[in-house]
Amino acid sequence: MTANSDLNVPFLSAAATASAIRAKQVSSVEAVQAYLERIDKLDPTLKAYITVCREEALEAAGRLDSDLAKGGTAGPLAGVPVAVKDQYQTAGILTTNGSKVYQDFVPTEDATVISRIKQAGGILLGKLNMSELAMGGTEKPPWGTPGNPWDPERTPGESSSGSGVALAAHLCAASMGEDTGGSGRGPASYCGVVGLRPTFTRVTRHGMTPMCWFLDAAAPMTKTVEDCALLLGTVAGYDPNDPYTSRRPVPDYTANLGQGISGLRVGLIRELHETEDVHPEVKGAIEAALEMFRSLGCQVREVSIPLITKAGAIFVGIADTEGAGARDEILRTRPEDLDRASRTRLQSAALVPAKVYNRAAKARVLLRRQMMEVLDQVDVLVSATAPYPAPKHTDLTATFENADDVRSRFFVRRSYTGCYPLAALPAISLPGGFTSDNLPIGLQLGARPFAEETLLRAAHAYEQATSWHQRMAPGAQL
Amino acid sequence: MTESMTDQVRGLARLVGISISEEDLPEVANRFLSLMTELNGLTEMDLADIQPVSVFPDEDEPDA
Known about the structure:
The structure holds two protein chains of two kinds.
Chain A: H1 14-22, H2 28-46, E1 49-52, H3 54-69, E2 81-85, H4 112-119, E3 123-128, H5 161-168, E4 174-178, H6 185-191, E5 194-197, E6 218-222, H7 225-235, E7 265-269, H8 280-295, E8 299-303, H9 311-326, H10 328-333, H11 340-350, H12 354-374, E9 380-384, H13 393-397, H14 403-422, E10 427-434, E11 440-446, H15 452-465
Parallel strand pairs in A: 2-3, 2-4, 7-8, 7-9
Antiparallel strand pairs in A: 1-3, 4-6, 5-6, 5-10, 9-11, 10-11
Chain B: H1 3-16, H2 25-40
């Protein structure tokens, strides 16, 4: 088969790549090679990958091409090069969890998510960089500091940093990140791509190293909303190896994407918008998005969720305390193997008294109650994904000067994304504009449990009515 | 960060069986103090009748 140079495969969506491979306009091997070429040129600077599965990917792509040539049927991800956060266990392939603690860990079996991607025809291109133990704030990532393709001096977000970078720089066609409190949506926002946190229990976590069992979710991250729907449909559904996954049937999330959203009730979360914490250009972008929803026929109103400004603290009170418990042996026996930021964060969480944890757990239930009550009045919640565009690396990793500094730099932004996992609700971040200095702004939409179809339909309608997702990051240029 | 606060954090760490280096101690104390301050703010709310249940979206939701 001859490469079709007109297609420029790395700049296609995953859905378009699969279509082109099924139609034999390009082979899967050629698609993998095209991405490998870009990785070789760009990743020494961007540091999106921890492991590139070069040989394995080419072999798998060759087998798929051979099957197709024999008339085989290809799955929905036919030949699509997919890269995953290094939090997913992969048989025979290093799985570091972004930490020196796991620098020699080679699992013997694939996480269920990885198996499902392969069964759907996806090609595992590599394992992506991430903040240590999926926590965020890592000062010196052992496999290099990932650079934001929109501005290398700025963070790509955390903790699925490599997923955000690889998608924005077109170093993979689609990715699986992970989202405990915003680890998928945050990088999606800062890198100008799409990140979905599904409803808790919608997607199996078997073989995904936990950060906080009660809050972790496998998170599709993609270049387009359609790709996100495609990937969610691939990985969602009951898994006997993770008995807490929902037994609800998995719909075809792509089926109704183009149905329009006329009549949809959209609610702007007042407490996450009418505050000085929000950067003026982010605020402007969200207000423009609301106008766009109105023009698409939606009923737009403001809603109030009083407890949501405390979501960051509630989230940290629960997730970090759980995380410290889960990492107790490391904290006791080899704390020096952890990055300083991870170590001090876990150590401080290990000291939280039981009565304070209990209060946070109760507040979580009250927050969910408030969010569910509002979701009786509207179909989709709207806010920024983050109150400001991507900060500089140096701002993110600077030592905390005092408790107020911790509040403003640590808790505030976590309220924007942390509220949804606390309430076990789905949420998506998609490109919602750019600042005057060309940094992406993330638009976040949330919905009721298992309302991913509504969420994706709203996101797709907005995406198709705007052109933000078509803008090219400077760091993606060869 | 006051010396008494770092002393308290050092003492708490000893009780829970973890060792915090002198270099890390101010950062841990700042993080811990901030978290306590933020979560103490929740005492203003009436949480007495709320049960701290785990949230599973497929189950009945008496609190929702």
